[in-house]
Design goal:
It is a single chain. By secondary structure, the chain is an alpha/beta fold. The protein contains 13 helices and nine strands. Helix 9 crosses helix 13.
Length: about 290
């Protein structure tokens, strides 16, 4: 039995679909906050149980019988994130899960300039302390984040963002396929995996060139001072914590934390991962 949390989200749902292509549905279970959103999976024979990171008892029930648990990291930051992960890990221990796989990130480190990477490092410490077999999937930075940063530029032609550095933007589809491959070859990686990254690390200067080539329209790259960017984010109604989180991405990129490009993802999926150009073309065509 393989249990997946966050199975209605971008990565969790894609991973479930990849698993269902390769193993019977009765070997797959999901832990979701709202089982109604996973009814189609239940209809296909997947075990669906309600599990909330804020109610650890539900997680113990949701994880029951799991030989492997894919713990998809929470969409939270700081102590709220780590405490939720702690609750899930404690529940996995109580449920006597065989192995925990966790969606970490390339650049996970206690001294990262990006809050999420510090949260990942703390969560990896929790996994290490359980004594259970565990795998931390060091996923490349999601290309979907870059596409969000580009949304206004898509209309204005001006990529106005803070100073950055190269990032190995990586697609959800490729990561889901690799995650399923790792799960189905239990023990391939113990502890952190090598970086699971796209084929190239790009800064937004290069992204502007790609956008121009892809669309046939000119795109410029304007560097916005950090303070001015933060004020813009606040002016759009975002909380200060979100503004600081976003700035952390650029600070970490400038610090070279996301530059690594590794062949492991390509080896796992048996082909080159999708380029950022391909992902941009696909997203903007929609």
């Amino acid at each position: 039995m393989i249990i997946v949390t966050g199975a209605t989200g971008k990565l969790g749902r894609r991973t479930v679909e990849r698993l269902l292509e390769r193993i019977p549905a009765d070997r797959v279970g999901v832990s979701v906050r709202d089982p109604r959103k996973a009814q189609d999976l239940a209809d296909r024979g997947v075990r669906v149980r309600q599990g909330s990171f804020d109610d650890p008892d539900t997680l113990v029930h949701a994880f029951e019988g799991a030989e492997q648990l894919l713990l998809v990291s929470l969409d939270r930051t700081g102590e709220k994130c780590v405490s939720g992960h702690r609750a899930a890990i404690d529940a996995a221990v109580k449920a006597e899960v065989g192995r925990i796989l966790y969606t970490s990130q390339t650049g996970a480190a206690h001294d990262s300039r990006f809050q999420a990477c510090r949260d990942h490092a703390r969560t990896e410490d929790l996994l290490r302390a359980t004594g259970l077999p565990w795998t931390a999937l060091r996923n490349g930075f999601y290309a979907a984040s870059a596409l969000q940063f580009l949304e206004s530029a898509r209309h204005t032609g001006d990529i106005a963002l803070p100073a950055d550095g190269p990032v190995a933007w990586t697609g959800h589809d490729d990561l889901a396929e690799a995650t399923a491959a790792i799960i189905l070859d239990e023990g391939r990686f113990d502890g952190p995996t090598p970086p699971l990254t796209g084929p190239a690390a790009l800064d937004f200067d290069t992204v502007a060139e790609i956008a121009s080539q892809t669309t046939g329209r000119p795109f410029t790259r304007t560097v916005v001072p950090d303070d001015a960017f933060r004020e813009q984010v606040l002016a759009h109604g975002a909380p200060a914590a979100i503004a600081d989180l976003l700035l952390g991405i650029f600070g970490a990129a400038r610090n070279g934390e996301f530059t690594t490009v590794d062949s492991t993802l390509a080896e796992l999926i048996g082909r080159e991962p999708a380029t950022f150009r391909t992902q941009l073309e696909h997203a903007w065509a929609e």
